[in-house]
């Protein structure tokens, strides 16, 4: 999980690459963080818990400039090491709470994934689970940011599922990085529910919606 400075063997922060100083705080005592305290402080925790189509929805952070840059380095510049930098303070909670769940990751474009050599959401999910389902996929290249509202509705026609049968009667966590229009999430939920999982919850890393109330 750590990258090391070869001279000192001191762990380096995955984000800023500076040595992680071991300050005697409760946080560093209980968790061997892969990022430094000053990078950690730039995340804006939201911990929103609400519902989406009657399914429990948890959103961890606000989509601030720091998060946007970090996500671009990971997804756009293929910095795979950063997969472990997104879920740090919630790592223990997520790995415990979703221990017996199948983590169903939202799909990203197959062509982009081939260039990257990894599936972004699956990489981040691997920081808290080893039971990851990657059967949701996009049938054609589709960039949500380039689409009009009507175009975004069409995303429902390009997302599909394979090997969904393995989700039957399983506890499922649907996981995505950013929630935008909600149409991707809605389609993923439809496809997964078709296989009647025992239960389903949603965890999203970050939202641009700043009106959400912090309620836990
Ligand atoms: Zn740092």
UniProtKB/TrEMBL annotation:
Pfam families: Pribosyltran. GO terms for molecular function: glycosyltransferase activity. Coiled coil: none annotated. It comes from the Bacteria. InterPro entries: ComF/GntX_DNA_util-trans, PRTase-like, PRTase_dom. Keywords: Glycosyltransferase, Transferase. Residues 114-208 form the Phosphoribosyltransferase domain. SUPFAM superfamilies: PRTase-like. CDD domains: PRTases_typeI (cd06223). Belongs to the ComF/GntX family. This is Predicted amidophosphoribosyltransferases. It comes from Sharpea azabuensis.
